[in-house]
Amino acid sequence: MGRTSSVSDSSAQALRFVQQVAESGVDVVPGFGLAELAFQRVGWKLERDRLESLERAISSALDSALVRNDQPEPSVVSDETDFVNVSMFEPLVPLLQVFYASLLKVSCLAATGLDRARAVRNVEAYLDWAADEFGCIAALPLQAAVAIFGGDSHARKLIGAGSAKSTQQAVWSGAWDVFYLHQLYNLALIEIEGLPQHPIFVTQDRACYEIFTKSRLQGAIRLELERLPQIVSISSDYPHYRGREDDLAAIFKDTALSRIDGLVAGTRMTQAHLDGAIVELEGAV
To answer: Is the dihedral of CA 25, 26, 31, 33 positive or negative?
Structure first.
């Protein structure tokens, strides 16, 4: 789904998307897409009025699509349908914040230079920052960092390099892309009503496509009932790393080994710490 700064344009895009989905007969609920359209970065919260307006418009679009397709049954979507459960979404906000902060840091490092000579050094600086700031390394933002520092010209647009978007606007959009992929990976790890899930991520964003088709979900480690760290492979097949593959592998290994204890212990950051990191990074880009 594309993004614009206009509420009406965003609503129109959402309606067109859902109409196409309804006409295809695919069973889907566009919850996260609506959450993005109704989410405010200032205050980090969903705007309930905007969300309800979008939900009503989509309910109407679904009804219209069913009528055009001569569906025998009336739409099951009522005025009371909640595509987004606000109380269930709120615990996911810190995860979105981690992804946003991570891409802001990538943008800050990119501003110092994206030439071949800096590539490995930039990756090392990003890993050191993430490990110290969060006590963990989020795999998908790391794949973005490796692609951007590695010389992928398309990937750089995820943080606004070479784009008409402002850096913060581009990074905000990119954080949602990372958030979607993370949630899809989670779905791939579980079964619903005894059936394995095969999630599909559709995007018109070339940068997003170029980056995240290179990473692969390998599995997960169940450390606690609600803690299931994903195991995601990171590709370093980019031009700036050629001839320095061993150096990059050594950095990845050293960082991973130094953080195993923290991963097992489940070290948690405070919300104040996360908020402070974002404010500092936003001031730096």
So the answer is: negative
Would you kindly state where each structural domain of the chain is located, as residue ranges? 7-84, 92-284
CA–CA separation, 159 and 111 (whole Å): 11
Q: Is the pTM of this model over 0.85?
A: no
CA angle 137, 140, 144 (to 5 degrees): 105
Q: CA dist 112 to 36, 117, 119, 164, 285, Å? A: 30, 12, 11, 20, 11
pLDDT in tens, 126-176: 999 998 888 778 889 999 999 999 999 889 988 988 666 778 888 998 999
Q: Are strands 39-40 and 191-192 parallel, antiparallel or unpaired?
A: unpaired
With a CB cutoff of 8 Å and minimum separation 6, the contacts of 167 are 107, 159, 160, 285
Neighbours of 244 (CB within 10 A): 15
Buried b (16+ CB within 10 A) or exposed e, 176-193: bbbbbbbbbbeeeeeeee
